[in-house]
Specification:
313 residues; paralog of FGE (formylglycine-generating enzyme); four-stranded mixed sheet; 29% helix
């Protein structure tokens, strides 16, 4: 009978077992989703990681770690993971005096943009913040300032260091240091170009040589198929050179008279459509005053790993 104390006790035990089973299933599912998200982030599968984190927050809305990580991961679209560890920096070659000597540094993990910042993304920042646009953008009849439609996916150029820095901060990011940039380009080893040491790769947007300035301008980001780094970054040898948040100073142990070093100038990294493959070597260092604008200089951004994500640090 229903009022039998022994039967009631059995029912309560069954219900308790069912609740425990559900808690176990939820915990197992939550762990699987978290592990999937971390693995996807390490593999630069950003959309998969975001989907796993969304599913985790729906499964357990009280999971503060999952909610914080999802909010952070929303800024990682089109970014790649660069793991912590050593990075070979510079070279001992005699034709790259500013990059001497070759040495190794230890860097924490970070995410870096797969592509250089596009015109379309920079235009959104200009619209939403009222920031000054690149000075070569055209003003339309309606008063808006922009670029030719077919250049929406070209890298933004003619931006100075401060414009690049402010855009990065608006996007929840920052500019890379030159060491971070070089590790992302070389994969941590001593290769000459992002793809390796073969100088005959031609699907790269650089001039045919230092005297023949062709091709004559930027290309849509990511379309130079050979210009890919070990971590998946595109256009680190060609298209446009890039601002780095580092002063142009000698490396430790380097010759202070080997180049016109100046701590007030910022480092530029990567080759561009204007110069030949020799200048596109991943260890090459160039420089510019922070207020300068150039048709062959753009930028990309990085995102730091937060303290609570020890699995990625």
């Amino acid at each position: 009978p229903d009022d039998d104390p022994r039967a009631q006790e059995v029912r309560e035990r069954i219900a308790a077992c069912e609740r425990a089973r559900r808690r176990h299933d939820v915990a197992a599912r939550a762990k699987a989703l978290w592990d999937e998200a971390i693995e996807a982030l390490r593999a630069s599968r950003i959309e998969q990681a975001q989907a796993a984190l969304r599913a985790l927050t729906e499964l357990d809305p009280s999971d503060e770690r999952a909610r914080r990580t999802l909010a952070w991961a929303e800024r990682l679209d089109d970014m790649v993971y660069v793991p912590a560890g050593p990075a070979v920096i510079g070279t001992d070659r005699a034709d790259a005096l500013a990059a001497r000597p070759q040495h190794t540094v230890q860097l924490p993990a970070f995410f870096i943009d797969r592509y250089e910042v596009r015109n379309r993304a920079f235009a959104r920042w200009v619209r939403e913040t009222g920031a000054a646009p690149p000075r070569h953008w055209k003003r339309g009849e309606d008063g808006t300032v922009g670029f030719a439609h077919e250049q929406a996916d070209h890298p933004v150029v003619e931006v100075d260091f401060e414009q690049a820095r402010r855009y990065a901060a608006w996007a929840g990011k920052r500019l890379p240091t030159e060491f971070e940039w070089e590790k992302a380009a070389r994969g941590g080893d001593a290769r000459i170009w992002p793809w390796g040491n073969d100088p005959h790769k031609r699907r790269v947007n650089v001039a045919a040589d230092s005297s023949e300035r062709l091709p004559i301008h930027t290309r849509p980001v990511g379309t130079s198929a050979d210009d890919r780094s070990p971590y998946g970054c595109m256009d680190m040898a060609g298209n446009v050179s890039e601002w780095c948040d580092s002063p142009f100073v000698p490396y430790p142990g380097g010759d202070p008279d080997a180049a016109p070093f100046d701590p007030k100038r910022k480092v530029l990294r990567g080759g561009s459509w204007r110069y030949g493959l020799h200048y596109a070597r991943a260890f090459n260092r160039d420089r510019a005053t922070p207020d300068s604008h150039s048709p062959y200089v753009g930028f990309r951004c990085v995102v730091d790993i937060p303290d609570w994500l020890e699995a990625l640090r």
